Amino acid sequence: MSVAGMMRYALLRMARSYLALLLLVGVPLVLIAVIGTVSDYLQIERYGDTSLPGMDYLAVSMVLGFQLFGGAYTMEFFKSDLLDARKWRLHALPLRIDRYGMALLLGSTVFTMLQGLAMAIFTQLMFGVNWGNYAWLVVVLAAVSFLSQLVGLVLILSLRSAKLAERLSEVYGIGSMLLAGFALPMPDTPLFEFFGRYGNPLSLGQNAVFGMLYGNDRLLPLLSVGLLFTASALLLPLAAAAGRRKLG
Amino acid sequence: MNLVRLERLVKRYGDLMALDHMELDIRAGEILGLLGPNGAGKTTLIHALTGLIAVDSGTIELFGHAMRPGKLEPKRHFGLVTQELTLFYDLTARENLAFFGGIYGLKGKALQKRVERTLQLVGLEERADQFPGKFSGGMQRRLNIAAALVHEPRLLIMDEPTVGIDPQSRSYILDTVRELNRQGTTVLYTTHYMEEVQALASRIVIMDDGHAIANGTVDELIARIQLEEKLQMEVSEPTEQLIEQLQAIGGVKQVKQEGRRLLVSIRPGADVLEPLLAAARTYGGGVRYVNADKPTLEDIFLTLTGKQLRDGDGGEAE
Ligand SMILES: Nc1ncnc2c1ncn2[C@@H]1O[C@H](COP(=O)(O)OP(=O)(O)OP(=O)(O)O)[C@@H](O)[C@H]1O
Ligand SMILES: [Mg+2]
């Protein structure tokens, strides 16, 4: 079976993980609807010097923020297929486990992106959120999703305890949201300023979407997406090494 | 021809020798029953021979070639029924089989046909579009077996395929294994259930503490181990003289009396029934009841290992 064929099964299974769908699509949509409707700020000064509708800022940040938790798919599928009892069955098949792992990783990346895309379309139709060019949005979603899958993958493959790996991946997601100043205002120091702008995947994703929409040039959005892919490129060999050690 | 040849196989986990110079041959066309108590090393043996774990030393030959982890080609020709249920619970029964068949390179119509045939073989065609989580334990076990059969392997390796299931499912599975064997599939069948081995296996290997301690047909094992046979008889008048007469018969080892009942231990293979009955008629006032106990696989096992097959029970169904 080709990697694409194995991905198809992974996607089918993800589409049936209803709890994950509820948490990763249902929850952010409810949050966007509730906070966006309740909050009275409609015009805010949020992105650099640009003012943009509060709903737009909220929806884009929420959707990109929840991409950070998409790594849960990679972790769950690697755990159940390649670390628990099912691994014996898969290892007994004439199947290269690295190719199967690649299918799970790509399947999780694509599925998380599709969730993001669905939410983007939904918020545009429901709340008139401006997402800009959808082709560019797909690139941004791919960059954030892939990085988040790799973070999850490195954690689940290098830590002994899957529980700990799952908790740490949540720290990555929530930590990024905090650094981006999305949930709470961050201290006004140069260090936090830097990390709040370039040092976390959510901010980089925001730069990429908002920068393209409202920025003066394309440097910042391109640089941000470049940084996201660079981070992934650095994690890939780590994941491969951890995989060789743990999965044989 | 041997499909599998294991020589002096050693697998250590720390200080524990999970496989301790294990030897095993599997001949083409046979159903080999592998018996062993909990922790004997059966699963470790299966994982070693299928290249799922690396061993410390010894030879593994599968289909005439050395087997080691990472080798994919031999994996096309065996099917492994894992001890634990290893199905995809988010795929239907049919999708499960299609996935496994697909991994073996089956496609399109050919795959579809094979999946339907396999569903039929294990009697799940009517539940094909349901998720295995909805199945009874026995049906899940059947699907667990089917998943190792879609590609029609030459060698079927079953690691306790009938743990904890209802009698119908069990006899269905045994019939299926027999049928597959008739069609030419070689089978390695691991179980705790003596009666399954006795009903299925053409040859038996008993293992304990990581190595084989006996190998042969049930009859061969009984003969080799020289278990004594036991005969019970009830006579009308159990006199002293009768007991003396019985003990004098060649082949009789011991006679115990319990009221009217006499327990006679007999050397294996000794032909003593006629003289026993004759003596009982002459000195005991006639025979009212006779019962001879042939040693069972259970007795063989107990004698060899000093252990019950399964922790805390005698090998009967759970
Ligand atoms: N990964 C492992 N690490 C440490 N010890 C192990 C490991 N796998 C198996 N063992 C030990 O090796 C021995 C043999 O185990 P194995 O699972 O092969 O037995 P088994 O005959 O299949 O038993 P059961 O009938 O309970 O399935 C046991 O003592 C077991 O605890
Ligand atoms: Mg076992």
From TrEMBL, chain B:
GO terms for molecular function: ATP binding; ATP hydrolysis activity. Residues 4-234 form the ABC transporter domain. Keywords: ATP-binding, Nucleotide-binding, Transport. This is ABC transporter ATP-binding protein.
